[in-house]
Amino acid sequence: MARILIVEDDETIRRELALLLRNANYDVQEVCDFSDVTKQILSSAPDLVLLDVSLPAESGLSVCARLRLSSQVPVIFVTAGNTSMDELNCILQGGDDYIAKPYQPPILLARIGAVLKRTMLPEENVQRLTIHGVTLNLASAVISYQGKQAELTKNEWKILGFLFRHQGEIVSRVQLIDYLWDHQVFIDDNTLSVNMTRIRSRLAQLGVTDFIVTKRGMGYLIP
Which DSSP symbol is given to 195? Predict the structure, then answer.
């Protein structure tokens, strides 16, 4: 399920967009504090951003330009401007597409689908996963955060990969063990506990705490 981040300061429009996208089976997040939009986009690690041009603290054009210094996350501008110059400015600042208000919901959904189809890699080809600024490099079995990095063992790499791919879901210990056995990693319940302790220790060395939450009697969760 693709995650879409809505950056829109008009609460009514934002709620309508969120409802439209959730009904279309997207995972939706909303920015409600506009003091540092770029930072929030980077920490949310969405698959696509719907970005309004007219924001209270900083224009969407400026946000996208700064975002492009460190991220290629797809951006679709949603704006009241509907001239060719408005569209050109959006594209020049790094936008992937542009749609003017008032828009037709089917057209917006079609444009979102087209951009995601063009930019999202098949799951098996994904090399890096990022959540809350923490990046798991699947190719090199390295986890990094704010310039620091730590190497992972095969078991730690497999466990973290599964948890990253199921962000927002409670993953039971049985699920993890079954997944590992299916991928030729044969561990028992005690070994899983040891690996989870080591993973948390590596995260702590990078300055990351409370990244993996233990739900007593249920399993683990990356919120």
Answer: H
